Amino acid sequence: MDDCTTITPLPLRAIGWLHAPEPSDENLLRWSFCYPSVELRTHHLHVVEHRSTGWPTWLAFRDHLRAHPELAGEYQRIKTELADTAADRPAYRAGKAPFIEAVLASITSSAA
After folding, report:
1. Coil, strand, or helix at residue 54?
2. 48 near 55, Cβ under 8 Å?
3. Phi first, then psi: what are they for 15, rounded to 5°?
4. If you average pLDDT over every residue of the chain, what do you get?
5. Could you confirm whether the keyword Transferase appears in this record (predicted)?
6. Domain regions of the chain by residue span
7. Cα(74)–Cα(99) distance, rounded to whole angstroms?
């Protein structure tokens, strides 16, 4: 995606995705969507501009989880637990943050 301001959510809406803006979307040059509803989301999708400063980090995190299934399983466990216990989206994101930060620190230290 070259410019997130030109995205039209209609094709995603046609297959059940809802635009679900997050507080940092504009600064991170992304659009956020969820499925099947904002209140009961089971899937979350970000459409991100290539020039977003977050893009390389998000890809590195994704690729690291793909290469380390045990970490992917731990992340899934954390997310499942938070989905059942977190009071809201900010609490859910805050609950995932320590794991994400540890994985990113590991990636950074192994690249050095």
Report:
1. coil
2. yes
3. -110, 20
4. 90
5. yes
6. 1-52, 54-112
7. 9
